[in-house]
Amino acid sequence: MEHLYDYLIIGAGMTGDAAAKAIRAGDPAARIGMVGDEAQAPYERPPLSKALWKGDKTPEAIDLGTARSGAELHLGRHAESIDRDDRSVRDDHGDIYRYRRLLLATGATPRRLPFAGERVIHFRTLDDYLALRRYAVAGAHIAVVGGGFIGSELAASLASNGCKVTMLFPGEAIGAGRYPRALANFISDYFRERGVELRSGAKVVGGKADDSSVELTLSDNTTLRVDAVVAGLGVTPNTALAEQAGLKTDNGIVVDERLRSSDFDIWAAGDVANFHNVALDQRMRVEHENAAISMGHHAGRVMTGADEAYTTLPFFYSDLFDLGYEAVGLLDDRLDVVEQWTQPFREGVVYYLDDGRVRGVLLWNVWGQVDAARELIAERGPFDIENVRGRLPKLV
Description:
five-stranded parallel beta sheet; 8 helices; globular; 27 strands
């Protein structure tokens, strides 16, 4: 079957949804098509590790209502190839989609453990949440592999739902390398106090799963048997389609300031896009909700004629039991770290400095300061350990 669209979006996630709505606003008569791997229409992804476990939302409530944009959704289909000369895309069902302008919002794929099984879940999608929920009953022993954003959020959510949780990660503490050492140690102790067993310095080197359990083989030659395993090991950008089409890639699809790829009629946005950030003056690829939505919206506007550079410095956030934070820029403890606590490890601001500039800001239980943090990062300074203190929170 052949389909003809003015605008074709490959990827039915938050980025694709934001783009479709922006395209509809900028070109009300446009024919918009969207092709996505998942069977579900675009939905909010952050609740999968947070709000759905708290009962604040239901799976039905996270639907983004993409169909209201008028986009035709082709779900459960994988785009396999692009013919740039013919301006067409072919999917795994043999359908062909012709486009005038194309957006690649293909997202990313979770890194995987060295074995598989029904009780081994590489967490990314709504189906992954539903699969984990089947095993995460009160009293079940769940291993969480990874101490990053997803791993720490899932460990907190599972423990809060009555599961016995063992958290395995190679670092010294939760968030090591990202948070100041004392804060990372505090968070690790906080998790232990809430019943989470931490196995720091542990790597999963093998394992096997059967119908009733999973046995993990660890780097210290020990084994761990659990009811299920959920992995949050980071992701790899889905660049295969772009590479097949001959687009420029480098840790993602390389885009210009207007999110256009090396092909004039093809844009890229979201997890898969490698863009230049003006405030940090460096190329980056961001895997958080704010980037997905803001880049999708911007790409949609530019595709319909807006002549604007993407200058947003995305922010991200997390909830860990009753702790929470928002962060902007680079969180890297190899930078010069300046801590400013109102209540030690309960409320405060952490600044990350390099060469006289603020490169990142961690707002720990400090709210409403994201824009102020962005402004601070954009300032040329110079800043040092003394004069950066007290810059936030900014009175509004």
